[in-house]
């Protein structure tokens, strides 16, 4: 355990030399206000955003939270009980996933929702307004899909 703590401390000390204007490591208790980042930018993260609940303007890397993860733009992986992103490229993993804008990649959860999807939704209930890809789940709703509502699989290419 001590070795892990020393390794983390060395990584945190070395990060500012390479970071530039973005935060490389962000630790969040809740939202934007109860957060600490190295360097001090808590809204532009290039690296790891970790906490209980997090809100960031952009994340390029991993946003891993226990309760909720929210970001305007994500490139990488977003994971929490509830996830929300406006522009997303990568994998969104949670019990409930929301893609408010264009989502390119994969949503995996119990309930997945997106305005526009280019990729795959895998869950019990999948809901999308505009799809260019595939939905696999118990109930699949896609306004422009093969059918508006399908069981097991729906999509459009």
Task: Describe it.
There is one protein chain. Helix content is 11%, strand content 76%. It is mainly beta. Strands 2-1-3-4-5 form a five-stranded mixed beta sheet. It is elongated. Mean pLDDT is 84; it is low at 1-19.
Notable traits:
157 residues; mainly beta; five-stranded mixed beta sheet; 1 helix; 5 strands; elongated
Topology:
Layout lengths: L1 H18 L3 E8 L3 E5 L5 E88 L1 E10 L6 E8 L1
Parallel strand pairs: 1-3, 3-4
Antiparallel strand pairs: 1-2, 4-5
- Helix/strand/pairing category: mainly beta
Shape: elongated
The H-and-E topology, N to C, reads as HEEEEE
Gap between N and C termini = 50 Å
Concise summary:
The chain has one helix and five strands, in the order H-E-E-E-E-E. The chain has 157 residues and is mainly β. A five-stranded mixed beta sheet has the order 2-1-3-4-5.
């Amino acid at each position: 355990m001590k070795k892990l703590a020393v390794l983390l401390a060395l990584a945190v000390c070395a990060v500012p030399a390479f970071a530039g204007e973005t935060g490389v490591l962000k630790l969040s208790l809740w939202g934007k206000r109860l957060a600490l980042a190295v360097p001090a930018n808590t809204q532009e993260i290039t690296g790891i955003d970790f906490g209980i609940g997090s809100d960031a303007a952009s994340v390029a890397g991993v946003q891993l939270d226990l309760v909720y993860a929210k970001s305007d733009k994500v490139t990488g992986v977003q994971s929490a009980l509830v996830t929300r992103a406006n522009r997303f490229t990568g994998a969104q993993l949670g019990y409930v996933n929301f893609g408010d804008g264009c989502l390119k990649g994969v949503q995996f959860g119990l309930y997945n929702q997106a305005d526009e999807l280019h990729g795959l939704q895998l869950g019990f209930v999948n809901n999308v307004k505009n799809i260019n890809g595939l939905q696999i789940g118990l109930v699949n709703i896609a306004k422009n899909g093969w059918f508006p509502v399908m069981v097991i699989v729906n999509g459009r290419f």
